[in-house]
Amino acid sequence: MASVTYPTEMGGDGKTYTDDADPDTGMANGGHQTRLIPAMAGAVAMGEYAKSQADAASSSASSAANDAAAAEQAKNEVHVDQDTIQAAVATTTENASLASAYADTATNMADAVAQATATYTGVGSGLGATSDGDYFRVISAPEAQRIDVYRNDSGSATLIAEYYTRGGVDARMRDQVRLSRSLQRQGDLGQSLHADFLLQAYGWTDSPMDGVQHALSDSEVITVLRASPKWVWDARGKLVEVPVDTPAYEYDPITGTPLGVLNEPHSTNEIAECNRWDANSSDLLFPGNGDPFPGGNGVPVRVVPNAEHTRHFARQVNPIDVEGLEIAYSFFCKPQGYTRIQVRVNGYSGDVAASIDLVAGEATWTASSTVKAIVTPLPEGFYRVELSGVATSNGSWVHLFIQEADGSMDFAGDEVSGIDLYWGQLEVRGSATSPIWTEGSSAAREADGVRTYADGWENRRQCSVFLDVAMKGGGANDDNIVTLGAGSGGERMVISKRGQVYVASPDGNSFAGHNFSPSLYPDTTTYAFAYEEQGRFDMAINQGESSRTLEIMSDKRMGMARLTLGNQHTGWSGVMNGYLRRLRYYPYYMPLAELEALQ
Q: Which residues lie within the region annotated Disordered (predicted)?
C-alpha cells in the first residue's frame, strides 16, 4: 500500500491519501471521487510554498552577497580609517611640536621685550647704541602710535614684535567716534569743544559738565606750524625730538609731571647747543671725552684748569656792541670735579654777571646790571644756567670762569678735574622787556608759530572760551600780555581772570581800537572770555611776527591776536611764559557768574 501526507509545515493541509480502499484515506473503490481534488489542491499549495521558499532563498542569497560586499567595503574603510588615524596622530604630533615652538617663540619674544629696556627714535640709533644680540625698542614715526622691538643681529635689525601704544589705540577709537558724533549734532547750541592737553584728550561734548571724549585729533584742536623739529623733556626726564608740525608735550624733567603743550618755537628750545662762536680760552686744557648730554646738539667740551696760578676761563665772542641793550645767555654744564663757575656776559669785567654754585643751586649776582640768574638741575648730573640783564658798557666776549669751592678764581688745577661744557645761546635785544634767553630771526619765529583756532564752530553769534595755562616765572608781571580784539556793531564781551572783570562792554567801544591788552600774571593760570556778535567768531592762540597785526579781526571777528606761550621776542611786548594746558570752547554766551564757575 502506497500513501502520501501533505504536511502543514510545507504548505499542505496535513491529510494523508492511500491507494487502498480505506474508508478515510483510500482512493480505491470510488474513494478517488471525493478525495482526488482535495489531494491535488494540497499538492498545488505545497508547490506554492516551495516557490515562496525558493524566492526567499534567492533573496537571502542576494542579501548574503550584499552583506559580503558591505563587509568587504567595511574592511577597506577600516583600513582607510586606520590610515587616517595614523595621519591624525602624526599631525597632532607635528602640531604639538609647533605649539611647543610657538610657546618658545612667545617666551623668547617676552624675554626680548623685557630685555629691550632702551627706546630710540630710529632703528639706526638703536643699532648704534647696542651690541650683537641685544634687544631695543623703536618708536614708530611720526605719530608714535606703535612700539617696535628689534634684535641687533651683527649690525642688522631683526624685527621681533610690534605693539600699539595707547595713543595708537586712541587714534583708531577717535576715527570711529568722530564719524558717529559728526552725525549727532544736537541741540540749538551745538556741541562744546574740550581739549585737555595734560591728558592729551580732545572731544566734543553736549554740556560744560560732560567729560572729555575721544572724538578729535590733535590737528583739529591745535594746529602747529613748525618747519623744523624741536626738543622737549619727556616723562622719563630725557630730551626727545618732536617732528615738524607736531604738538610738543613737555614734562617736568625732575618729577615727570605733565606740563602741557609747550608753545615755544624751535628757536627757544632748551636743547644744549654746543656752538663755540670762535671761542678762546686761558689756562685751560681740553682733554676731550666730555659726557654726552641727552638730546644735546654738538659735542661737549671738557675744560680742565691747568697748573698755572692764573684765572682759568673760556670765552665766546659777542659779535656786536651791547651797551644799552638787553643781553641774555644760557648754557649747559656738568661738574667733573669743580662745582662753581662765574659767568660774565659782556666782557672780562662785564656788568651782567653771577657766580653759580651748581650743586647748591645758588646764583649770586656779581654785577648791578644783572636782572636774572638761575641755575636748574637736570637729569644725569647736568645743569642749565640762565643769565640776563641790561648792559651798561660794551663788551665783546662771554666769559666762563672756573672757581674753587671757596669762590676763588686764582688757583692751580690738578689738570684732571674740570667741567663738561656745552657752549650756550646768546640773545641781544633792543629793549629790556622779559629777560629770557632765546635765539633765531623774526622770520624763523614766524615759521615756528603755533596756532589754535576756534573758527565759528556751529554757532557764529555767541561763544565762550575757557583757557588754562601754566605760567613760568621770569620777567615783570606786565610783560605777560594777551591782546584781544573785536569788531564793532552790537558785540558784548566779558573777560574774567579768577573773578576779576577786565572788560564788560555792551557795544565793544572800550576795546581801544578793537583790541584790549590785559596783563597776565605768573601766579594766575585760568582765564575765560565770553563774546556775542552778529558775525563769525575766531580765536587764535599763536605767535610770530605777523600775528601781531589785527588782520584776523576783520569781517566782525573777535580774535586773540597773539597769546604767546613761550620765551621769545625781540623788542615786542605780549609774551606769556608758560604752557597751554586746557581749552574749552562753548558756542554760546556765558554770563560772568558762569565764567567764574568754570575757574
A: 1-32
pLDDT single digits (tens) 310-319: 889 988 766 5
Contact 332, 437 (CB under 8 A): no
- In the beta sheet, which residues pair with residue 202? 195
Dist CA 350 CA 373 (whole Å)? 14
**One domain for residues 294 and 411:** yes
Q: Which three cell numbers stand for residue 100?
A: 611647543
CATH code for the domain in which residue 461 is found: 2.60.120.200
CA distance 44 to 28: 22
Query: Residue 545: left (phi > 0), alpha (psi -120 to 50), or beta?
Result: alpha
**For the chain, what is the domain count?**
4
Contacts of 186 (CB under 8 A, 6+ apart): 206
Cβ density class 48-82: b for 16+ within 10 Å, e for less? ebeeeeeeeeeeeeeeeeeeeeeeeeeeeeeeeee
- Taking only the tens place, the pLDDT of each residue in 49-99 is 666 766 665 666 566 556 656 656 655 554 555 665 565 555 555 655 655
Give which of 531, 513, 529, 540 is closest to 599, Cα–Cα: 529
Count Cβ atoms below 10 Å from residue 205 Cβ, excluding itself: 18
Are 370 and 384 in contact by the 8 Å Cβ rule? The answer is no
- Determine the average pLDDT of the residues in 161-188: 57
Q: Are residues 381 and 530 in the same domain?
A: no
Say whether both 92 and 52 belong to one domain. yes
The CATH number that applies at residue 277 is 2.60.120
Q: Would you say 202 and 218 are in contact if contact means Cβ atoms under 8 Å apart?
A: yes
One domain, residues 486 and 567: yes
For residues 312 and 420, state if they share a domain: yes
Q: Are residues 17 and 143 in the same domain?
A: no
Most confidently modeled of 92-106, 152-166, 272-286, 515-529? 152-166
Domain limits for position 66: 3-97
77 vs 90: CA distance, rounded Å: 19
In a domain, 260, yes or no: no
